[in-house]
Amino acid sequence: MKCRLPLFLGFMAAILPLPVVATENVHLSIDASKPGARIDRNVFGQFAENLGHGLYEGIWVGPDSPIPNTRGIRNDVVAALRELKVPNVRWPGGCFADQYHWRKGIGPRDKRPATVNSAWGDVIDSNAFGTDEFMDFIQQIGSTPYVSVDVGAGTPQEAAEWLEYMTAAAPTALAKERAANGHPEPYKVGFLGIGNESWDCGGAMTPDYYVSQMKVYSRFVLNMNPAQRVKDQMLKIAVGPGTPDTEWTEAVMKAWEKHTWAWDINGVSLHWYTVPNGWPPSTNSEKFGLDDYAKTLKSTLFMDEFLRKQEAVMDKYDPERKVTLTVDEWGAWHAPLAGSNPAFLVQQNSIRDAILASLNLNIFARHADRVRMANIAQMINVLQAMILTDKEKLVLTPTYYVFKMYVPFQDATFVPVSMDAGAFTQGGISLPRVDAIAAKVADRKLLLEITNLDAENPVSIDADMPGITAKSASAETLTGAAVDSINTFASPNTVVPKPTAVKIRDGKLSLTVAPRSVTIVSIEP
Ligand code: AHR
Protein backbone atom coordinates (compact mmCIF):
# COMPACT_ATOMS: atom_id res chain seq x y z
CA MET A 1 0.00 0.00 0.00
CA LYS A 2 2.83 2.33 0.98
CA CYS A 3 4.37 2.34 -2.49
CA ARG A 4 1.08 2.28 -4.36
CA LEU A 5 0.06 5.87 -3.50
CA PRO A 6 3.03 7.65 -5.16
CA LEU A 7 2.67 5.36 -8.15
CA PHE A 8 -1.00 6.27 -8.39
CA LEU A 9 -0.17 10.00 -8.12
CA GLY A 10 2.47 9.64 -10.79
CA PHE A 11 -0.10 8.03 -13.05
CA MET A 12 -2.62 10.80 -12.34
CA ALA A 13 -0.02 13.47 -13.05
CA ALA A 14 0.58 11.89 -16.43
CA ILE A 15 -3.07 12.18 -17.41
CA LEU A 16 -4.20 15.23 -15.38
CA PRO A 17 -1.91 18.23 -15.82
CA LEU A 18 -0.93 19.49 -12.36
CA PRO A 19 -0.87 23.29 -12.00
CA VAL A 20 2.42 24.56 -13.35
CA VAL A 21 3.73 27.89 -12.14
CA ALA A 22 5.84 29.32 -14.91
CA THR A 23 7.58 32.62 -14.38
CA GLU A 24 7.60 34.57 -17.62
CA ASN A 25 9.95 37.45 -18.19
CA VAL A 26 8.96 40.89 -19.49
CA HIS A 27 11.50 43.59 -20.21
CA LEU A 28 10.45 47.23 -19.80
CA SER A 29 12.18 50.26 -21.18
CA ILE A 30 11.18 53.37 -19.22
CA ASP A 31 12.36 56.51 -20.95
CA ALA A 32 12.54 59.12 -18.20
CA SER A 33 14.23 61.54 -20.62
CA LYS A 34 10.98 61.89 -22.64
CA PRO A 35 8.37 63.20 -20.17
CA GLY A 36 4.86 63.55 -21.58
CA ALA A 37 1.68 65.20 -20.33
CA ARG A 38 0.70 65.76 -16.72
CA ILE A 39 -1.55 63.04 -15.30
CA ASP A 40 -4.19 65.38 -13.92
CA ARG A 41 -5.14 64.52 -10.36
CA ASN A 42 -8.78 65.00 -11.38
CA VAL A 43 -8.57 61.71 -13.27
CA PHE A 44 -8.81 60.08 -9.82
CA GLY A 45 -12.22 61.67 -9.16
CA GLN A 46 -15.21 59.90 -7.67
CA PHE A 47 -18.94 59.84 -8.24
CA ALA A 48 -21.48 59.91 -5.39
CA GLU A 49 -25.04 59.77 -6.67
CA ASN A 50 -28.21 59.83 -4.59
CA LEU A 51 -28.70 56.13 -5.30
CA GLY A 52 -29.32 53.21 -2.95
CA HIS A 53 -27.02 53.44 0.07
CA GLY A 54 -24.41 55.58 -1.65
CA LEU A 55 -25.26 58.77 0.25
CA TYR A 56 -27.78 57.68 2.87
CA GLU A 57 -26.01 55.23 5.22
CA GLY A 58 -22.82 55.33 3.12
CA ILE A 59 -22.01 58.97 3.96
CA TRP A 60 -24.97 60.42 5.82
CA VAL A 61 -26.17 58.86 9.07
CA GLY A 62 -27.47 62.05 10.69
CA PRO A 63 -26.14 63.84 13.78
CA ASP A 64 -28.20 61.69 16.18
CA SER A 65 -26.82 58.38 14.87
CA PRO A 66 -24.90 56.09 17.25
CA ILE A 67 -22.43 55.67 14.36
CA PRO A 68 -19.61 58.16 15.08
CA ASN A 69 -20.17 61.19 12.87
CA THR A 70 -19.39 64.84 12.44
CA ARG A 71 -22.52 66.86 11.72
CA GLY A 72 -24.20 63.69 10.41
CA ILE A 73 -21.32 62.52 8.19
CA ARG A 74 -19.64 59.20 9.06
CA ASN A 75 -16.19 59.68 10.58
CA ASP A 76 -14.91 56.27 9.40
CA VAL A 77 -15.81 57.03 5.78
CA VAL A 78 -14.23 60.49 5.94
CA ALA A 79 -11.01 59.07 7.43
CA ALA A 80 -10.78 56.42 4.70
CA LEU A 81 -11.48 58.88 1.88
CA ARG A 82 -8.96 61.43 3.13
CA GLU A 83 -6.27 58.83 2.48
CA LEU A 84 -7.25 58.80 -1.21
CA LYS A 85 -6.83 62.57 -1.65
CA VAL A 86 -10.05 62.50 -3.69
CA PRO A 87 -9.61 65.43 -6.10
CA ASN A 88 -13.29 65.90 -6.97
CA VAL A 89 -16.67 64.35 -6.27
CA ARG A 90 -19.50 64.36 -8.79
CA TRP A 91 -22.95 64.83 -7.20
CA PRO A 92 -26.01 64.53 -7.11
CA GLY A 93 -26.13 62.27 -10.20
CA GLY A 94 -26.19 60.52 -12.65
CA CYS A 95 -29.78 60.09 -13.72
CA PHE A 96 -30.84 61.49 -10.35
CA ALA A 97 -29.35 64.91 -11.24
CA ASP A 98 -31.94 65.56 -13.95
CA GLN A 99 -34.80 65.26 -11.49
CA TYR A 100 -33.19 67.03 -8.52
CA HIS A 101 -34.63 70.28 -7.25
CA TRP A 102 -32.00 71.74 -4.97
CA ARG A 103 -34.35 73.95 -2.95
CA LYS A 104 -35.90 70.86 -1.38
CA GLY A 105 -32.53 70.03 0.16
CA ILE A 106 -31.68 73.25 2.04
CA GLY A 107 -32.77 74.83 5.32
CA PRO A 108 -33.79 73.14 8.57
CA ARG A 109 -33.81 69.40 7.93
CA ASP A 110 -37.04 68.79 9.81
CA LYS A 111 -38.83 71.17 7.43
CA ARG A 112 -37.51 69.65 4.20
CA PRO A 113 -40.13 67.91 2.06
CA ALA A 114 -40.00 64.17 1.47
CA THR A 115 -39.77 63.38 -2.26
CA VAL A 116 -39.58 60.21 -4.33
CA ASN A 117 -36.30 59.14 -5.94
CA SER A 118 -37.91 58.03 -9.17
CA ALA A 119 -34.50 57.49 -10.80
CA TRP A 120 -33.54 54.76 -8.33
CA GLY A 121 -36.20 52.47 -6.92
CA ASP A 122 -38.93 55.02 -6.10
CA VAL A 123 -37.69 55.21 -2.54
CA ILE A 124 -38.63 58.11 -0.27
CA ASP A 125 -35.93 60.76 -0.08
CA SER A 126 -35.92 62.82 3.12
CA ASN A 127 -33.69 65.40 1.40
CA ALA A 128 -31.59 65.42 4.59
CA PHE A 129 -28.43 65.23 2.50
CA GLY A 130 -28.64 68.43 0.45
CA THR A 131 -26.28 71.11 -0.78
CA ASP A 132 -24.88 72.21 2.60
CA GLU A 133 -24.38 68.61 3.75
CA PHE A 134 -22.62 67.74 0.48
CA MET A 135 -20.35 70.77 0.82
CA ASP A 136 -19.60 69.82 4.44
CA PHE A 137 -18.67 66.31 3.27
CA ILE A 138 -16.42 67.78 0.57
CA GLN A 139 -14.71 70.00 3.10
CA GLN A 140 -14.27 67.11 5.55
CA ILE A 141 -12.60 64.86 2.96
CA GLY A 142 -10.62 67.77 1.45
CA SER A 143 -12.00 67.55 -2.08
CA THR A 144 -13.62 69.77 -4.74
CA PRO A 145 -17.29 69.66 -5.77
CA TYR A 146 -18.36 68.67 -9.24
CA VAL A 147 -22.04 69.62 -9.28
CA SER A 148 -24.34 68.33 -12.03
CA VAL A 149 -27.30 70.62 -12.61
CA ASP A 150 -30.78 69.57 -13.66
CA VAL A 151 -31.20 70.11 -17.40
CA GLY A 152 -33.92 67.45 -17.82
CA ALA A 153 -36.71 68.39 -15.41
CA GLY A 154 -35.26 71.72 -14.34
CA THR A 155 -34.77 75.15 -15.90
CA PRO A 156 -31.76 77.39 -16.49
CA GLN A 157 -33.18 79.77 -13.89
CA GLU A 158 -33.33 77.03 -11.22
CA ALA A 159 -29.74 76.03 -11.97
CA ALA A 160 -28.57 79.66 -12.04
CA GLU A 161 -30.12 80.25 -8.63
CA TRP A 162 -28.47 77.12 -7.25
CA LEU A 163 -25.09 78.42 -8.39
CA GLU A 164 -25.91 81.77 -6.83
CA TYR A 165 -26.81 80.05 -3.54
CA MET A 166 -23.53 78.14 -3.57
CA THR A 167 -21.10 80.74 -4.86
CA ALA A 168 -22.38 84.33 -4.48
CA ALA A 169 -19.79 86.41 -2.65
CA ALA A 170 -21.93 89.58 -2.59
CA PRO A 171 -24.79 89.76 -0.05
CA THR A 172 -27.59 88.73 -2.43
CA ALA A 173 -30.79 87.24 -1.05
CA LEU A 174 -29.55 83.73 -1.87
CA ALA A 175 -26.14 84.36 -0.34
CA LYS A 176 -27.92 85.54 2.82
CA GLU A 177 -30.02 82.39 2.79
CA ARG A 178 -26.82 80.32 2.58
CA ALA A 179 -25.40 82.31 5.51
CA ALA A 180 -28.59 81.70 7.49
CA ASN A 181 -28.10 78.00 6.79
CA GLY A 182 -24.69 78.17 8.41
CA HIS A 183 -22.27 79.10 5.63
CA PRO A 184 -21.58 82.80 5.11
CA GLU A 185 -18.51 82.10 2.95
CA PRO A 186 -19.18 81.18 -0.68
CA TYR A 187 -18.53 77.57 -1.55
CA LYS A 188 -16.03 76.71 -4.21
CA VAL A 189 -17.62 74.86 -7.12
CA GLY A 190 -14.79 73.43 -9.18
CA PHE A 191 -16.80 71.79 -11.92
CA LEU A 192 -20.29 72.22 -13.33
CA GLY A 193 -21.94 69.34 -15.18
CA ILE A 194 -24.54 70.56 -17.66
CA GLY A 195 -26.95 67.64 -17.39
CA ASN A 196 -26.30 63.90 -17.46
CA GLU A 197 -26.84 61.36 -20.25
CA SER A 198 -29.21 63.81 -21.93
CA TRP A 199 -29.60 61.32 -24.77
CA ASP A 200 -31.28 58.90 -22.35
CA CYS A 201 -32.36 59.31 -18.70
CA GLY A 202 -31.52 63.03 -18.86
CA GLY A 203 -34.40 63.77 -21.24
CA ALA A 204 -33.95 61.63 -24.36
CA MET A 205 -32.74 64.68 -26.29
CA THR A 206 -31.33 64.77 -29.79
CA PRO A 207 -27.76 66.10 -30.09
CA ASP A 208 -28.99 69.37 -31.61
CA TYR A 209 -31.60 69.94 -28.94
CA TYR A 210 -29.01 69.28 -26.24
CA VAL A 211 -26.55 71.68 -27.85
CA SER A 212 -29.16 74.48 -27.67
CA GLN A 213 -29.75 73.71 -23.99
CA MET A 214 -26.03 73.49 -23.30
CA LYS A 215 -25.45 77.00 -24.71
CA VAL A 216 -28.21 78.52 -22.59
CA TYR A 217 -27.02 76.82 -19.39
CA SER A 218 -23.44 77.76 -20.11
CA ARG A 219 -24.47 81.38 -20.63
CA PHE A 220 -26.62 81.80 -17.53
CA VAL A 221 -25.50 79.27 -14.91
CA LEU A 222 -22.62 81.26 -13.50
CA ASN A 223 -20.20 81.08 -10.67
CA MET A 224 -21.06 84.27 -8.73
CA ASN A 225 -17.76 84.51 -6.90
CA PRO A 226 -15.49 86.97 -8.79
CA ALA A 227 -12.45 85.36 -7.15
CA GLN A 228 -13.31 82.08 -8.82
CA ARG A 229 -13.92 83.65 -12.20
CA VAL A 230 -10.37 84.91 -12.43
CA LYS A 231 -8.30 82.21 -10.77
CA ASP A 232 -9.22 78.58 -10.35
CA GLN A 233 -12.07 79.02 -12.77
CA MET A 234 -15.11 76.73 -12.54
CA LEU A 235 -14.96 74.33 -15.49
CA LYS A 236 -18.15 73.52 -17.38
CA ILE A 237 -18.60 69.96 -18.59
CA ALA A 238 -21.08 69.18 -21.37
CA VAL A 239 -22.81 65.83 -21.72
CA GLY A 240 -20.99 63.47 -24.06
CA PRO A 241 -21.65 60.00 -25.40
CA GLY A 242 -22.27 56.66 -23.72
CA THR A 243 -21.78 54.57 -26.84
CA PRO A 244 -18.78 54.63 -29.15
CA ASP A 245 -20.54 56.39 -32.04
CA THR A 246 -19.39 59.94 -32.53
CA GLU A 247 -22.55 61.83 -33.54
CA TRP A 248 -23.03 63.42 -30.11
CA THR A 249 -19.40 64.50 -29.74
CA GLU A 250 -19.48 65.92 -33.30
CA ALA A 251 -22.49 68.08 -32.44
CA VAL A 252 -21.03 69.39 -29.18
CA MET A 253 -17.55 70.04 -30.56
CA LYS A 254 -18.81 71.61 -33.78
CA ALA A 255 -20.82 74.06 -31.68
CA TRP A 256 -17.84 74.68 -29.40
CA GLU A 257 -15.55 75.55 -32.32
CA LYS A 258 -17.86 78.47 -33.12
CA HIS A 259 -18.58 79.54 -29.56
CA THR A 260 -18.74 83.27 -28.86
CA TRP A 261 -18.01 85.37 -25.77
CA ALA A 262 -21.47 84.48 -24.52
CA TRP A 263 -20.88 80.85 -23.73
CA ASP A 264 -18.16 78.26 -23.45
CA ILE A 265 -17.52 74.75 -22.18
CA ASN A 266 -14.27 73.27 -20.89
CA GLY A 267 -15.02 69.59 -21.14
CA VAL A 268 -17.13 66.92 -22.79
CA SER A 269 -18.06 63.90 -20.77
CA LEU A 270 -18.02 60.23 -21.73
CA HIS A 271 -19.61 57.29 -19.92
CA TRP A 272 -18.32 53.79 -20.38
CA TYR A 273 -19.02 50.89 -18.07
CA THR A 274 -17.46 47.46 -18.24
CA VAL A 275 -20.47 45.20 -18.88
CA PRO A 276 -18.89 42.12 -20.49
CA ASN A 277 -22.13 40.36 -21.45
CA GLY A 278 -23.99 43.53 -22.47
CA TRP A 279 -27.11 44.99 -20.83
CA PRO A 280 -28.56 44.09 -18.40
CA PRO A 281 -25.36 43.42 -16.45
CA SER A 282 -25.07 39.72 -15.67
CA THR A 283 -21.52 38.98 -14.49
CA ASN A 284 -21.26 37.81 -10.89
CA SER A 285 -19.24 40.08 -8.64
CA GLU A 286 -18.38 37.19 -6.30
CA LYS A 287 -17.72 33.49 -6.85
CA PHE A 288 -16.69 33.55 -10.49
CA GLY A 289 -14.00 31.75 -12.43
CA LEU A 290 -11.10 32.38 -14.77
CA ASP A 291 -13.19 32.67 -17.94
CA ASP A 292 -15.30 35.46 -16.43
CA TYR A 293 -12.12 37.12 -15.21
CA ALA A 294 -10.57 37.16 -18.69
CA LYS A 295 -13.79 38.25 -20.39
CA THR A 296 -14.23 41.17 -18.00
CA LEU A 297 -10.68 42.43 -18.47
CA LYS A 298 -10.95 42.09 -22.24
CA SER A 299 -14.12 44.15 -22.15
CA THR A 300 -12.58 46.88 -19.98
CA LEU A 301 -9.65 47.34 -22.38
CA PHE A 302 -12.14 48.66 -24.93
CA MET A 303 -11.92 51.98 -23.07
CA ASP A 304 -8.77 52.78 -25.05
CA GLU A 305 -10.50 52.42 -28.43
CA PHE A 306 -13.52 54.39 -27.22
CA LEU A 307 -11.30 57.27 -26.13
CA ARG A 308 -9.40 57.23 -29.43
CA LYS A 309 -12.62 57.53 -31.42
CA GLN A 310 -13.87 60.48 -29.41
CA GLU A 311 -10.46 62.14 -29.39
CA ALA A 312 -10.26 61.96 -33.17
CA VAL A 313 -13.46 64.02 -33.38
CA MET A 314 -12.32 66.43 -30.68
CA ASP A 315 -8.95 66.91 -32.39
CA LYS A 316 -10.75 67.96 -35.56
CA TYR A 317 -12.43 70.91 -33.82
CA ASP A 318 -9.93 71.49 -31.03
CA PRO A 319 -6.41 70.54 -32.17
CA GLU A 320 -4.90 72.41 -29.24
CA ARG A 321 -6.71 70.09 -26.83
CA LYS A 322 -8.26 72.87 -24.78
CA VAL A 323 -11.45 70.91 -24.10
CA THR A 324 -10.98 67.97 -21.77
CA LEU A 325 -12.54 64.58 -22.31
CA THR A 326 -14.09 63.82 -18.92
CA VAL A 327 -14.80 60.15 -18.30
CA ASP A 328 -17.22 60.98 -15.51
CA GLU A 329 -18.71 57.49 -15.21
CA TRP A 330 -16.61 54.36 -15.58
CA GLY A 331 -16.09 51.05 -13.83
CA ALA A 332 -17.42 47.52 -13.61
CA TRP A 333 -21.19 47.08 -13.60
CA HIS A 334 -21.99 43.54 -12.43
CA ALA A 335 -25.31 41.83 -11.67
CA PRO A 336 -26.97 43.01 -8.43
CA LEU A 337 -25.96 40.94 -5.39
CA ALA A 338 -28.52 38.27 -4.52
CA GLY A 339 -31.03 39.60 -2.00
CA SER A 340 -30.24 43.27 -2.69
CA ASN A 341 -32.67 45.81 -4.16
CA PRO A 342 -31.77 45.69 -7.90
CA ALA A 343 -32.33 49.46 -8.13
CA PHE A 344 -29.56 50.01 -5.56
CA LEU A 345 -26.81 48.59 -7.81
CA VAL A 346 -25.07 46.68 -5.02
CA GLN A 347 -22.12 44.50 -6.03
CA GLN A 348 -19.04 42.92 -4.48
CA ASN A 349 -15.57 44.11 -5.32
CA SER A 350 -12.74 41.66 -5.95
CA ILE A 351 -9.11 41.68 -7.06
CA ARG A 352 -10.54 41.44 -10.59
CA ASP A 353 -12.14 44.87 -10.06
CA ALA A 354 -8.87 46.20 -8.70
CA ILE A 355 -7.05 45.07 -11.84
CA LEU A 356 -9.80 46.53 -13.98
CA ALA A 357 -9.37 49.85 -12.15
CA SER A 358 -5.61 49.89 -12.71
CA LEU A 359 -6.04 49.10 -16.42
CA ASN A 360 -8.45 52.02 -16.83
CA LEU A 361 -6.28 54.42 -14.83
CA ASN A 362 -3.34 53.41 -17.03
CA ILE A 363 -5.40 54.06 -20.16
CA PHE A 364 -6.33 57.52 -18.83
CA ALA A 365 -2.66 58.21 -18.11
CA ARG A 366 -1.76 57.33 -21.71
CA HIS A 367 -4.43 59.79 -22.88
CA ALA A 368 -3.36 62.42 -20.35
CA ASP A 369 -3.15 65.22 -22.90
CA ARG A 370 -6.93 64.95 -23.52
CA VAL A 371 -8.38 63.01 -20.57
CA ARG A 372 -7.91 65.38 -17.67
CA MET A 373 -10.79 64.27 -15.52
CA ALA A 374 -12.59 61.00 -14.69
CA ASN A 375 -14.97 59.72 -12.03
CA ILE A 376 -15.25 56.09 -11.06
CA ALA A 377 -18.82 54.90 -10.46
CA GLN A 378 -19.39 55.03 -7.58
CA MET A 379 -17.85 55.99 -4.26
CA ILE A 380 -19.70 53.97 -1.58
CA ASN A 381 -22.03 50.92 -1.68
CA VAL A 382 -22.90 51.41 -5.37
CA LEU A 383 -21.30 49.66 -8.38
CA GLN A 384 -17.46 49.56 -8.25
CA ALA A 385 -17.22 51.15 -4.83
CA MET A 386 -14.24 52.19 -2.72
CA ILE A 387 -16.08 51.41 0.48
CA LEU A 388 -18.87 49.05 1.52
CA THR A 389 -20.86 49.71 4.71
CA ASP A 390 -23.46 47.85 6.68
CA LYS A 391 -24.81 49.91 9.55
CA GLU A 392 -21.74 50.61 11.76
CA LYS A 393 -19.48 48.24 9.79
CA LEU A 394 -17.17 49.36 7.00
CA VAL A 395 -14.81 47.54 4.66
CA LEU A 396 -12.32 48.97 2.17
CA THR A 397 -12.48 47.23 -1.20
CA PRO A 398 -9.59 46.13 -3.45
CA THR A 399 -10.52 49.09 -5.70
CA TYR A 400 -10.01 51.42 -2.72
CA TYR A 401 -6.47 50.11 -2.38
CA VAL A 402 -5.73 50.71 -6.05
CA PHE A 403 -6.79 54.33 -5.69
CA LYS A 404 -4.64 54.60 -2.56
CA MET A 405 -1.62 53.09 -4.29
CA TYR A 406 -2.03 55.50 -7.24
CA VAL A 407 -2.11 58.67 -5.07
CA PRO A 408 1.53 59.52 -5.95
CA PHE A 409 0.53 59.58 -9.64
CA GLN A 410 -1.75 62.58 -9.04
CA ASP A 411 -0.31 65.45 -11.12
CA ALA A 412 2.83 63.42 -11.94
CA THR A 413 4.32 63.64 -15.43
CA PHE A 414 3.72 60.72 -17.75
CA VAL A 415 6.83 58.84 -18.88
CA PRO A 416 6.65 56.39 -21.80
CA VAL A 417 7.16 52.67 -21.17
CA SER A 418 7.83 50.28 -24.04
CA MET A 419 7.67 46.50 -23.75
CA ASP A 420 6.67 43.28 -25.35
CA ALA A 421 3.88 42.44 -22.90
CA GLY A 422 3.48 38.82 -23.93
CA ALA A 423 0.03 37.20 -23.76
CA PHE A 424 -2.20 35.61 -21.18
CA THR A 425 -4.78 33.35 -22.79
CA GLN A 426 -7.83 32.04 -20.99
CA GLY A 427 -11.06 30.58 -22.35
CA GLY A 428 -10.13 31.57 -25.89
CA ILE A 429 -9.48 35.18 -24.83
CA SER A 430 -6.02 36.60 -25.25
CA LEU A 431 -4.93 39.55 -23.14
CA PRO A 432 -1.60 41.32 -22.71
CA ARG A 433 0.14 39.51 -19.87
CA VAL A 434 1.38 42.77 -18.39
CA ASP A 435 0.39 46.43 -18.47
CA ALA A 436 2.59 49.23 -17.14
CA ILE A 437 2.83 53.00 -16.89
CA ALA A 438 5.50 55.27 -15.44
CA ALA A 439 5.57 58.86 -14.25
CA LYS A 440 7.97 61.38 -12.80
CA VAL A 441 7.08 63.32 -9.68
CA ALA A 442 8.31 66.82 -8.95
CA ASP A 443 11.25 65.68 -6.85
CA ARG A 444 12.50 63.58 -9.80
CA LYS A 445 11.37 60.34 -8.26
CA LEU A 446 10.16 57.83 -10.83
CA LEU A 447 6.97 55.85 -10.32
CA LEU A 448 6.23 52.61 -12.10
CA GLU A 449 2.95 50.71 -12.07
CA ILE A 450 2.85 47.12 -13.25
CA THR A 451 -0.38 45.16 -13.62
CA ASN A 452 0.05 41.42 -14.03
CA LEU A 453 -3.14 40.24 -15.77
CA ASP A 454 -1.98 36.62 -15.81
CA ALA A 455 -4.35 34.87 -13.44
CA GLU A 456 -1.96 32.09 -12.50
CA ASN A 457 1.66 32.91 -13.22
CA PRO A 458 4.06 35.42 -11.72
CA VAL A 459 6.02 37.59 -14.13
CA SER A 460 9.63 38.54 -13.65
CA ILE A 461 10.21 42.13 -14.69
CA ASP A 462 13.46 43.79 -15.57
CA ALA A 463 13.66 47.40 -16.65
CA ASP A 464 16.18 49.82 -17.96
CA MET A 465 15.55 53.48 -17.28
CA PRO A 466 17.34 55.87 -19.63
CA GLY A 467 17.16 59.41 -18.28
CA ILE A 468 17.48 58.54 -14.61
CA THR A 469 20.24 57.09 -12.49
CA ALA A 470 18.32 54.88 -10.15
CA LYS A 471 19.84 54.29 -6.73
CA SER A 472 17.13 52.59 -4.70
CA ALA A 473 13.54 51.40 -5.02
CA SER A 474 10.65 50.10 -2.96
CA ALA A 475 7.47 48.39 -4.09
CA GLU A 476 4.09 47.23 -2.90
CA THR A 477 1.68 44.77 -4.46
CA LEU A 478 -2.03 44.15 -4.25
CA THR A 479 -3.14 40.63 -5.04
CA GLY A 480 -5.52 37.93 -3.83
CA ALA A 481 -5.37 34.16 -3.51
CA ALA A 482 -7.84 33.79 -6.41
CA VAL A 483 -9.32 36.04 -9.08
CA ASP A 484 -12.49 36.44 -7.01
CA SER A 485 -10.77 37.27 -3.69
CA ILE A 486 -12.64 39.98 -1.79
CA ASN A 487 -12.49 41.82 1.51
CA THR A 488 -15.44 41.23 3.81
CA PHE A 489 -16.59 42.77 7.09
CA ALA A 490 -15.37 39.58 8.81
CA SER A 491 -12.05 39.42 6.85
CA PRO A 492 -11.25 42.97 5.82
CA ASN A 493 -7.54 42.38 5.14
CA THR A 494 -7.70 39.60 2.55
CA VAL A 495 -6.75 41.89 -0.35
CA VAL A 496 -4.47 44.64 0.93
CA PRO A 497 -1.18 46.00 -0.43
CA LYS A 498 1.98 44.36 0.87
CA PRO A 499 5.67 45.20 0.39
CA THR A 500 7.39 43.38 -2.48
CA ALA A 501 11.09 42.77 -3.01
CA VAL A 502 12.70 44.91 -5.71
CA LYS A 503 16.34 45.24 -6.75
CA ILE A 504 18.36 47.99 -8.40
CA ARG A 505 21.66 46.82 -9.82
CA ASP A 506 23.81 48.91 -12.17
CA GLY A 507 20.87 51.28 -12.61
CA LYS A 508 18.55 48.48 -13.76
CA LEU A 509 15.47 47.37 -11.91
CA SER A 510 14.23 43.85 -11.34
CA LEU A 511 11.34 42.32 -9.44
CA THR A 512 8.82 39.52 -9.71
CA VAL A 513 5.15 40.48 -9.71
CA ALA A 514 2.55 38.07 -8.37
CA PRO A 515 -0.19 36.66 -10.58
CA ARG A 516 -3.40 38.82 -10.82
CA SER A 517 -1.76 41.80 -9.17
CA VAL A 518 -1.21 45.54 -9.15
CA THR A 519 2.27 46.75 -8.13
CA ILE A 520 3.62 50.24 -7.60
CA VAL A 521 7.37 50.77 -7.59
CA SER A 522 8.94 54.01 -6.30
CA ILE A 523 12.38 54.56 -7.75
CA GLU A 524 14.72 57.08 -6.16
CA PRO A 525 17.52 58.75 -8.14
O1 AHR B 1 -24.08 55.12 -12.19
C1 AHR B 1 -25.38 54.67 -12.39
C2 AHR B 1 -26.06 55.33 -13.57
O2 AHR B 1 -25.43 54.97 -14.75
C3 AHR B 1 -26.05 56.83 -13.61
O3 AHR B 1 -27.06 57.40 -12.84
C4 AHR B 1 -26.29 57.11 -15.07
O4 AHR B 1 -25.74 58.34 -15.48
C5 AHR B 1 -25.67 55.93 -15.77
O5 AHR B 1 -26.49 55.40 -16.70
Describe this structure in words.
This protein has helices at residues 4-15, 75-82, 131-141, 156-167, 173-180, 207-220, 226-230, 247-257, 290-300, 302-317, 351-366, 398-405; strands spanning 24-30, 45-47, 69-70, 73-74, 89-91, 115-117, 123-125, 145-149, 191-194, 235-238, 267-274, 324-332, 373-377, 387-390, 393-396, 413-415, 417-419, 423-426, 429-432, 434-440, 446-452, 459-464, 472-479, 498-500, 503-505, 508-513, 517-524. The radius of gyration is 24 Å and the shape is globular. It has 2 domains: 15-36 and 415-524, Immunoglobulin-like (Sandwich); 41-298 and 333-411, TIM Barrel (Alpha-Beta Barrel). Strands 2-5-8-9-10-11-12-13 form an 8-stranded parallel barrel, surrounded by 6 helices. Strands 16-20-21-27-23-24 form a 6-stranded antiparallel sheet, covered by helices on one side. Strands 17-1-22-26-25 form a 5-stranded mixed sheet, with no helix packed on it. 25% of the residues lie in helices and 24% in strands. By secondary structure, the protein is an alpha/beta fold. It is built from 12 helices and 27 strands. Alpha-L-arabinofuranose (AHR) binds at residues 49, 93-95, 196-197, 329, 377-378, 383.
